[in-house]
User: Fold these one by one.
Assistant:
Number 1:
Amino acid sequence: MLIKKPTEIASSEITDKRMYFNRRQFIESALGVASAAAVLPGLLLPGAAQAGTRLAGVRPGSTKAPFGTDEERTTYEDVTRYNNFYEFGVEKEDPALMSKNFRTKPWTVTVEGEVNKPAVYQLEDFIKPHTLEERIYRLRCVEAWSMVIPWVGIPLADIVKRFEPTSKAKYVEFTTLHDPAQMPGQRRAVLKWPYVEGLRIDEAMHPLAMLAVGLYGETLPNQNGAPLRLVVPWKYGFKNIKSIVKIRFLEKQPTTAWMAAGPSEYGFYANVNPEVNHPRWSQARERRIGEFLKRKTLMFNGYANQVGHMYAAMDLNKYF
Ligand SMILES: Nc1nc2c(c(=O)[nH]1)N[C@H]1C(S)=C(S)[C@@H](COP(=O)(O)O)O[C@H]1N2
Ligand SMILES: [Mo]
């Protein structure tokens, strides 16, 4: 009997997600097992989405652009079961399954480099001076799917100002936790670990950029980047680095994990741009997770009026 492993099931990128999960459930029940989840102790089945803890004192979100949208929100179920988080596996359902026991307490955030106030913080102290806000943003993955997610977090500009960057600080670099014991994906050289991302300082100061600590009013589920992740809605999903332990201010542009993995495919800027295709596929359209027909991808993911000026003098074919 030929047993299909989840990795051999038709790609979840091109198969409608509901069909994909139904198919997986069908295969699991046909086999009488629940694939990896059955043999690895302590893991949840896809049926049991991991919930967060309710966040208090959140300034409520708006449905008005640019800090909100009246587009239908992607369901909590889809937001928390269809993820990219290679530290927990490369399949879309892996992060929800494999991050269940990930420890996010205690958690420290190191701020260093070109700042007057470098520091190592416990996460609670890092967050404490700020008011949490809800913002409903589109997330557009480079793989041509998208979601609408009500994030809870802090404007990144507020955090940048608090640490007082020096005049040499031209870029901000973010680093994910490196802990192969907890993050099984890091035991394989899929990417150069730890995952690193970066922004130009003016991008980091842009009012749309935020550091998220929650979604749907609750703390971030592990698979979504608990306890702290970046959200830059005008850029492809991979800029939205998860489980951040370090923020470093730099004079020179950092090399990000994806630039190192494929410099001809992933640039530093990674602005959503329907006119510049990925070398292997078109970026003109996208599938909103939960919908059937594809929609047109908008310049800067629909945030062109807000962010376009930062790139006005740049050739976006070169600085992709
Ligand atoms: N550390 C880390 N951050 C990451 C990734 C990753 O693999 N590792 N994947 C990125 C990609 S490709 C996307 S599309 C988004 C997905 O975020 P979500 O799963 O919360 O929707 O996370 C980004 N952040
Ligand atoms: Mo992505």
Note: Residues 1-49 have pLDDT under 50 and may be disordered.
Number 2:
Amino acid sequence: MANSLYENLKHSDPDVYDSVLRETDREHETLELIASENFVSYAVLEAAGGVMTNKYAEGYPGRRYYGGCEWVDVAEDIARDRVKKLFDAEYANVQPHSGSQANMAAYFTFLKPGDVIMGLDLSHGGHLTHGSPVNFSGRLFDVVSYQVEKETGRVDFDKLLKRAKEEKPKLIICGGSAYPRNIEFEKYRQVADAAGAFLLADIAHPAGLVATGIHPSPWPHCHVVTSTTHKTLRGPRGGLILMGEDWENSWGMVAPKSGRVKMVSELIDSNVMPGIQGGPLMHIIAAKAVAFGEALQPEFSDYCAQIVKNAKAMAETFLRLDFRLVSGGTDTHVILIDLTDKNITGKVAEKSLEAAGITVNKNMVPYDERSPMVTSGIRVGTPAMTTRGMGVDEMQQIAQMIGRLISAPDDSTVQSKIRQEVKELTSRFPLYPDLRT
Ligand SMILES: *Cc1c(COP(=O)(O)O)cnc(C)c1O
């Protein structure tokens, strides 16, 4: 497939062709441990690279602002049907261009500028869009951040309840980007009810684990759920919004300024488009449909179970090597290593691992005294390497390599030795062999 596609690129634009080819080689030759990344199937790549990129389709299936939408309607309907089945949802919007856009549209549905929101602090594992001052969420809303406990790395729900009662947020956001444990939806809902707040679950990270029942379900606890499609869900880069079974009944309808009372689902749809986006990325929506179809297969459940098994094996190895892990381990695909006692920053660790062909990201740990550009931690995740077929043995081996590099970050002999081991390991688990030269 892709060879013929690249054939045109190769001749018409050798420079971009070269960058694409080198990226493909990089993905094959390195150990990808960034917890938010994954490798999509050839089928997802084909749909994402297809002609639906040409089509304007503002609106929703059956009610578009443009003609000629019959076939993109089919793709979007398939995407919506499949994702509803996958997550046991009653309502789905698959148009958000990204996880951030999904959050923005959801916030605009439930909030007005200046309303109080409560989200997990970015430096405690939250996300930019959960109220960071440099993000739209922090600029438009009045943010009250909550934190995890120093000892446990987990949220203290008694404290959260007390805080929520004082601050009276309109929306509480649960979920995050560097939180290694399952999200306790039920406990958050008790807090939300006591404070009179809506509860939004951002499952961008564990979405695949949620879809396969490995992570607890957000229903019936969360009023609205947002996600990305490209992390554990292993689809194209994008976002989505879901509501569960009792969504219209249990918390009724939201009345707009004038006119007829609208259903919440209608409000979400109109906050995505025309609220914050124009034309949807129909090629990406087609690719989302393909990925949701893949995620409905039994093999995807096996895949997600293996992700967690791999993360636990890796975490155990790190603990044996005397690393400190935030919360002491993991329930998911994420491990957050606290390097505070290791005399190395997250920044230096990231660089030294990268030089050996191991890709991770530096990450703040809770109560970090270093800046976000330096940090005292690294975040490690298993979804991408599990996609390549690696198992517990490989995870243990990789954790050992990380241990050796971190104890000798400036030793170029160690780096080149490990670079060799990485090469050997990656060549046993080929990635996109048809797309490489
Ligand atoms: C990744 C992530 C997002 C945003 O996704 P983008 O597609 O990068 O905008 C939102 N929330 C959480 C918790 C995330 O981890």
Note: Residues 36, 98-100, 103, 127, 129, 175-177, 202, 204-205, 228, 239 surround pyridoxal-5'-phosphate (CB under 6 Å).
